[in-house]
Amino acid sequence: MFKKAFICISLISLAGCNDDNNDSKNTTQPNYQLPKILVIGHRGASALRPEHTLESYQKAIDDGADFIEPDLVSTKDGILVARHENEISGTTNVASLPQFADRKKSKVIDNTPFNGGWFTEDFTLNELQQLKARERIPQYRPENQKYNDLYAIPTLEQIIELADGHYKKTGKIIGLYIETKHPTYFQKQNLAMEDTLLKTLSKYQYTRDIAPVYLQSFEVNNLKYLKSQLDLHKSVKHAQLIQLYDDKSKKPADYDDQNVSTTYADMATIDGLKAVAKYADGVGPWKETYIFEDKDTLKKPTSFIKDAHQAGLKVHPYTFRPENNFLPSTLKCSTDPAKAAERCPTGSIKEMQLYFKAGVDGVFTDDPAIGRQAVQTYQATTK
After folding, report:
1. CA angle at residue 91 from 216 to 82, to 5 degrees?
2. Are residues 121 and 189 in contact, defined by beta-carbon separation less than 8 angstroms?
3. How far is CA 111 from the centre of its chain?
């Protein structure tokens, strides 16, 4: 699956990487312990800034996130950048730029057709740097539109440098919770991301030695490959691997590509979780499917958390959003469709706390300030 030549390059690169921009002489590492419940800034603070921008990540850090979450895709020249999808017409101003009109294409990505779009793998980094970010769901986050066309598409290196700079300034360690998007697809484009990701993380002392780093994927084989490389080279000291779970009826894209019949539902059984625990440290389930019997009442937990914990896996469900549209019907501040975009912090806090009570170890939230408040008030009442 991974080209031998590419692997050889990565082995050499990972063996002993030092970042000239960091103080490699400082070998004293801080005594850092992960919080009991993690607040993960999903795509930054994407409820308040256009997602996957440095400004969104900084807002998440300022608002109390323990981790910031970049989704990574590749450019034409193999640079890792942060976008939710490699199709970028909904998250940038690319469609309005005449110099890139001829890049519009139709593609099928993991069996999902895109009938006319712009894709990161068709742009060099220099070309992508001509674009600006836009709000992905303006119908639910109209306030974020005031930031349209202001922020650039960041590279992984810029995100690391942002977190590292914050650490050097404040002493606070912010973890990176990184997702590789469509890894099998990018491998087939000769743009495999795994080795580049590990090489970049091992370049910086911050990600190599200091910060917790979680690497997540909806696919399986790239996580197994990452585990093999991390075990072999010990290049990122605090790295952990997270298996993401989509809808129960679906299969990981690499399994689908290889005609493997295993679904996410199969991976959520006791035996399935035990198998995942052989290569991963935790699981990231879709919150509406795996944690409670009823996604609206949130009254009866399933056995998923208990089974995952018994297998030695942490549980970090996604995604908690503060707008009425995304809340369970029993927790909305208003069921009026006209108020779907209105924020409902009280409902969002109650929702997260029901998941805390069920036993999750962290949450992906679009609004880390609300997530932090949910954790603090929950822990204050359960001491």
Report:
1. 35
2. yes
3. 21
Q: How far is CA 379 from CA 172, 374, 382, in A?
A: 21, 9, 5
Tens-digit pLDDT profile for residues 38-75: 999 999 999 999 999 999 999 999 999 999 999 999 99
Q: Please indicate, yes or no, whether the overall pTM of this predicted structure exceeds 0.70.
A: yes
Token pair of 322 as six digits:
């503060």
Tokens 């699981």 belong to 283
Angle of CA points 88, 215, 182, to nearest 5° = 35
Please provide residue 340's backbone torsions phi and psi, each rounded to the nearest 5 degrees. -60, -30
Residue in the structure block whose two tokens are 């993960």: 40
Amino acid at 152: A
Q: How far is residue 365's CA from residue 356's CA, in Å, rounded to a whole number? A: 13
Cβ neighbours of residue 42 closer than 8 Å, sequence gap 6 or more? 69, 318, 319, 320, 364, 365, 366
Question: Rounded distance, CA 333 to CA 354, Å?
Answer: 17
Residues 6+ apart with CB under 8 A from 158: 54
For strands 282-285 and 239-245, give the pairing: parallel
Tokens of 253: 């894209």
Which helix H or strand E contains 350, and what residues bound it?
helix 345-358
For 80-123, the pLDDT digits (tens) are 999 999 999 999 999 999 999 999 999 999 999 999 999 999 99
Strand-pairing partners, residue 245, are: 285
Q: For 50-110, where are the E strands, in sequence order?
A: 67-69, 71-74, 80-82, 105-109
Quick one: tokens of 46?
């994407």
| CA–CA dist 14, 30 (Å, integer) | 23
What distance in Å separates the CA atoms of residue 341 and residue 326, rounded to the nearest whole number?
9
Residues 6+ apart with CB under 8 A from 37: 356, 360, 361, 362, 363, 375, 378, 379
Indicate the burial class of 117 (C-beta count within 10 angstroms; 0-12, 13-18, 19 or more). buried
Instruction: Give Cα 340 to chain centroid, integer Å.
Output: 25
Helix (H, G, I), strand (E, B) or coil at 65: coil
Beta bridge partners of 180: 72
Note whether 321 and 351 are within 8 A (CB). Answer: no
Q: What is the DSSP letter of 216?
A: E
